[in-house]
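Q: For a teaching session next week I want to show students how multiple molecules come together into a single three-dimensional assembly. I've collected the sequence lines for a complex. Could you give me the predicted structure tokens for the whole thing so I can convert them for display?
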Amino acid sequence: MGSRGLILTVAILALLAGACSGTRVSQGDLMGVAMAEPTPKPDFTLTDTDGERFQFAEETEGKLTLLYFGYTYCPDICPVHLAQIAEAFDQIPQISGRATVVFVSVDPERDTPERIRTFLDNFDSGFVGLTGTPEEIRTAEEAVGVPPSVKEGDGEDYTVGHAGQVFAWAADGLLYAQYPFGTRQSAWINDLELLSRITPGEA
Amino acid sequence: MRTALAASLALVTVGCGSTSGLEVTEALLGQPTGPNAALYLSVTSDTEDRLVAASTPVAEAVELHETSIAEDGTTSMHPVEAFVVTPAEPLILGPGGKHLMLVEADRLEIGDAVEIQLEFETAGTVAVTAEVVSPAETLGHDHG
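A: Of course. Below is the structure for the complete assembly, covering every listed component.
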């Protein structure tokens, strides 16, 4: 390769790297924070609101899967995310039965399975709620690659700092994008519509 | 004159509250889905003032809180003592930021009207009516 060819290659690579860096850029037509490279679904095991063990990768296999960490005492961010997803699901009929929303409680002290179920039923009775021991929840956070949640404050009305974004794996088991707090409803509808077209066999 | 007075009183009671130079608008309560709920509103004022407390019949207590979102995406929420409004800078409470947290909020339906008393250091008590909306609606409407 001549030096001109090399310079051109370097320039193209630099352009590509810039376009795919972790900032809020659209990869293809996605409006969320698209992954530079779609990554495989992590695995962890927690307990669902029926008291059954829930192995994340196995239970969600072949489905468009959204994952969010939160807690039922959270008034501000958690209900907004979950209400947005529920409303987007209602507006995309073909998504029904082919997508799973998994909510992992980061507040095992106060969030009983019953409390999580009641909370999620406000949005969609099909949403899966998970809890576990603090160690199990920590393991799940590590597997997904988010910082560990932190209990803040004393007494009964403590708060919990936690990852604020929603993760989206398509039916092929790959993570395509993350959705930070403040994602617009139009972006949710656009992306869930697009992600729901990816089939299990397609990589 | 009496008609004008009645009309202006009616205006004050619909969705906003105002006293001399201080106005509260866009009061929205995200439908409670758990023990706590968040109420958002905007305040403009001719003079600097501080919102120091609030109360409502639909919750055991109301706390002033602020959510912050770190670079790594971690969100956390902290109680604060007061929210400041100045003539230059309106006070804007909104999702993912400053909000009034209703502790042990009642079950409410979308469309319900909720009374809330705001305590300002200078303006005193301002009563407003907030509309209960879906939490998704509190983010505001898409602007394209």
